[in-house]
Amino acid sequence: MCLLLSSFMASLIYFMVYFPYFDFLGFIFVSIIYFFCYLFIAFPTQIYLRRKPKVYSVKYLIIYLLVSFLEQL
Fold this sequence. Notes:
The chain has helices spanning 2-18, 24-49, 58-72. By secondary structure, the chain is mostly helical.
């Protein structure tokens, strides 16, 4: 559920920044693309880093930032 909502929000922000008009079909298409990017890149990273959870780790924060940056390219 969270994965689906985050892909909708990311595509909504994408459309608000790059397109002056709203196209529903394009919004759905970009949402599907973001959903699969999150599913195949962010979700496995989350599972891998949560095997040994820590309260706060700078290393994990940097890994999350790098993966999310690469995902948006």
